[in-house]
Write a structure and sequence with these properties.
By secondary structure, the protein is an alpha+beta fold. The protein has 13 helices and 13 strands. It folds into 2 domains: 3-52 and 255-388, no CATH class; 60-219, no CATH class. Strand 3 and strand 4 form a beta hairpin. The chain is elongated, with a radius of gyration of 33 Å.
């Protein structure tokens, strides 16, 4: 008997008792839907967290000095001493941050003031939309120049190009030399709300001496761990207190996020497998009942020439069809569930194609495994005894 004929008979048997088939399929559907929904939201959350971390810059190490007082800041010469001879460094920039007010004409914008050096754009993978970024001369000469974030430029100047215009920043006049490309929010807040100025100018504007944070860009992924380890040794020597500073190693954080995601995926995969096992047991019970109810049918088919293999294949196919329908419905319901959850938590779900493929593969495996016993019993029935069954 060919496959299409077997499939038609199997589908007819599945649809003959719709309620029983629906309840059997439901067990598989619920398990797959729950896993697909949770994994989709989980992968979406991981993707957003990873994007946020990577938006800070690639191969990034940041150092923040904790506490207050003159001994809890660094000067440029002290930073140069700390960074001296550390291998794998592509760029370094000190960072001073504060809140401020930017004004132009009647426009006003509450912004973040960020004092950096000319290497900061390279460290943070920033691009200038119009104009230019800071130069070494701007920093050395303490020039009153500013690069505006996208929102600042839009609020103060509208659609006009602000390059060459002046703004008041905390009451002092600054020349606008550039506008950053829109970057959106990040772990450090919206970078479109920033005004970037030379770090030396920021010290004067904000009345500070030195800085309490600096960012380093490594040459590659391997150099990040080397830089972080070297900094830990040198900062311990400088402050003699491990709590005096904090080192953020982007590579390690990304690895932790990915490790947590893998663990979560394995846990959910285990739940999915258990759910499919429960669904498989339901399929086996229903198929055993079906064998008993269809004993005369089996005997009749054998009497007209059906082989044991034909009967075996038919019942196996029915079992696989039930589990496959459950898996496909589960994927569809799980996708809708993920979208519903995302509305409430504000995270875009990421459809787990790999998880869906695994779910379908497991469904086929469960159908074959748990359908084998009923199929074997059906195939081993003697035609004469089967035809005698009422």
């Amino acid at each position: 008997m060919d496959f299409l004929t077997t499939l038609k008979i199997g589908l007819s048997a599945v649809t003959a008792n719709k309620l029983r088939s629906a309840l059997t399929i439901l067990g598989v559907t619920i398990g797959v839907a729950a896993v697909i929904g949770v994994v989709a939201v989980g992968e979406g959350a991981q993707n957003e967290v990873t994007s946020e971390i990577e938006s800070l810059g690639t191969y990034l190490v940041t150092v923040s000095i904790r506490g207050r007082g003159p001994d809890r800041v660094l000067t440029q010469s002290q930073l140069d001493d700390i960074m001296h001879d550390i291998p794998g460094i592509a760029a370094v920039s000190p960072v001073i941050t504060a809140t401020g007010v930017a004004k132009h004409g009647t426009g006003r914008f509450d912004c973040s003031i960020v004092g950096v050096n000319h290497q900061y754009a390279a460290v943070r993978d920033m691009n200038v939309q119009t104009g230019r970024f800071l130069s070494a001369i701007d920093v050395d000469a303490r020039q009153k120049v500013a690069i505006l974030g996208h929102n600042v430029a839009l609020e103060l100047f509208g659609l006009s190009d602000p390059v060459g215009e002046t703004i008041k920043l905390n009451g002092q006049t600054f020349w606008v030399i550039g506008v950053l490309e829109a970057r959106g929010g990040s772990l450090t807040g919206s970078e479109d709300d920033q005004v970037i100025i030379p770090v030396t100018t920021a010290e004067r504007l904000l009345g500070r001496r030195g800085f309490s944070a600096f960012y380093i860009k490594g040459q590659d992924k391997d150099s990040v761990d080397v830089i972080a380890s070297s900094l830990e040794i040198r900062l311990n020597r400088r402050f003699r207190d491990e709590d005096a500073y904090r080192i953020f190693n982007q590579t390690q954080v990304l690895e932790i996020v990915q490790s947590v995601s893998r663990t979560l995926t394995l846990m959910l995969g285990g739940i999915a497998f258990i759910s499919l096992l429960v669904g498989g047991i339901g399929i086996m019970n229903i198929m055993l009942v079906s064998v008993v109810e269809r004993t005369r049918e089996i005997g009749l088919r054998k009497a007209v020439g059906a082989t044991n293999r034909d009967i075996l294949n038919q019942f196996l196919l029915e079992s696989v069809v039930l589990s496959l329908i459950g898996a496909v419905l589960g994927i569809a319901v799980g996708t809708l569930l993920a979208r519903g959850i995302s509305v409430f938590i504000g995270i875009s779900p990421l459809f787990p194609w790999k998880g869906a493929a695994i779910a379908i593969g497991l469904a086929i495996g469960v159908g074959v495994s748990f359908g084998s016993l009923p199929a074997k019993r059906a195939a081993e029935l003697e035609p004469i005894q089967a035809l005698r069954t009422e």
